[in-house]
Amino acid sequence: MKKLMMSGAVVTVAAVALVGCGSEAGQDKAAVSNKPVAASTEAPAQNVRTPEKNDRMSEDTDQGLASFTYYYFEAKNYAIQTGDADLMREVAADCSGCMTEADAIEAVYADGGWIVGGQPKALNVVALDEAKDEEGNLSAMVPYMEDARTTLDKDGKTVEAKEWDSDGTTLTVTANYADGAWAMVSVDETPNAGLPE
């Protein structure tokens, strides 16, 4: 009788051990499936990390403007990869050009398409020497590049393709500081503008 009980205990322990292994394997699989996956011509990006705000971008300083500008482009990158432009809209509601871009990105995904590449890269943010104007606006020059970009429709067919420009360009961004936060006012391509010394 004792022998039988011991055997049953061994079987029970073995079963629990196997269940434990299964749980760990399931957790490992879940961890793998949560990893970011870049977009391809086969499928849109997956598990894209949401950009996070930082304390510096609320500072009423040149560094605050720079930090905010980097965040804006991270929000744009997030929109390009996911079709969700809410973060862009949150910090650039008064920037008509930004809203036009947000609309265009969302329209691609609303129709079942997606975007491969096109990641914006602000290489530097250099505030202009001028003081803020009476409305609280401050401008900065941004040496800028974008990755090659392909827009696909719901069937995976290429709708538009833009090659990588190794020369990049220069943007002039203007943002407004009010109530403890920056908001984008305009983002204009100004390729002939020189960086302030």
TrEMBL record:
Span list, region Disordered: 32-60
Transmembrane segments: none
Entries under PROSITE patterns matching the protein: PROKAR_LIPOPROTEIN (PS51257)
Domain of life (superkingdom): Bacteria
Stretches assigned to coiled coil: none
Domain DUF6318: 38-187
Biased composition (Basic and acidic residues): 50-59
Annotated signal peptide: none
Name of the featured protein: DUF6318 family protein
Source species of the chain: Arthrobacter sulfonylureivorans
